[in-house]
Amino acid sequence: MAGFAAVPPKITTVETSHTHQRLFDFAKTALFKIFLFPYATVCELFCGQVPDVEKFDDALIGHYIGIDVETSGVSQVQVAWESQRKAYTSQFFELDPCTEILEPHLLDMCNAVDIVCCMQHLQICFTSEERARILLRNVSSLLKPGGYFLGITPDSSMIWAKYQKNVEAYHNKSGGMKPNIVPNCIRSESYMITFEVEEEKFPLFGKKYQLKFASDNSAETHCLVHFPSFIRLAREAGLEYVEIQNLTEFYDDNRAQFGSLILKFGPNLVDPRGRLVPRSYDVLGDEFYLSSFILREWQGTAWRDDDLNGTTEPPPGLGKISDQKGILGPGPVDLRFPDAV
């Protein structure tokens, strides 16, 4: 579907009382405040109904590009936006960024985008290596040199670590245990995660699980994101690793800047000193695990072209990525990337 200019409306974000939704909205707001700037060109992958339109308004961006699959309703969003007036223009495309090459559809936007964001559904791109590879090549084709790819995804290393602990605890129990039957879920007050089968190693792609929050009527299917593979494929596409951080750590590191902001997302998220209360930790990091990811388009072509052929060392600070079990991402201390990364 061809892109078209439109002038978006003021869409009011529906306030929700669910803790995980309020914290997720806070995390998105914080990331946008850090990275968005006036007159920026922003592309949002899996934009859906564009729930963050007010955040783009506040940032005074110059141009918005929304991309999502046909069933997302993005065409209806475009129709609504056409009847309104804003200070920035917009384009919408009904495309799957995991399966379709975006460049032929967005010729005027290639290497012209300041920020590409994916605030949900990165994990569905990890059903296969090919889907993840196409997504990251699409991102690289859109970004300016030095532009950023950022977003939020479940912290797969923490999820996997909790799951493995459940399996190990079950195996360590004595007497009366049925062989080859193990717990396949992680439970907390806020959510339940259910895996299909027990596996000893973290599969790089296609590890599916069902996620259901206590406030939801049904579960959603997700895939674990193997962070070393994510970084490896990003590097092959010309994207430089900047940071992957559990959102509890993100909040603690930026509490001086965003301590007052989180209060706008409702009560009972932080204590009087501005520290996250236990339920917030349960959702953001200690048990449920959201991570922010930040990648940057490499400034220059020599490293990208040579690295695709495996002949060049990665840029300073990127380090070597290991695919072995245990080096998976933010998560628990003993499962994090080495400092060199």
TrEMBL record:
It is found in: Nucleus. One of its GO terms (cellular component) is nucleus. It comes from the Eukaryota. Pfam families: mRNA_G-N7_MeTrfase (PF03291). Keywords: Methyltransferase, mRNA capping, mRNA processing, Nucleus, RNA-binding, S-adenosyl-L-methionine, Transferase. It catalyses: a 5'-end (5'-triphosphoguanosine)-ribonucleoside in mRNA + S-adenosyl-L-methionine = a 5'-end (N(7)-methyl 5'-triphosphoguanosine)-ribonucleoside in mRNA + S-adenosyl-L-homocysteine. Its EC number is 2.1.1.56. Residues 305-324 are annotated as: Disordered. It is an enzyme of class 2 (transferase). This is mRNA cap guanine-N(7) methyltransferase 2. It comes from Chenopodium quinoa (Quinoa).
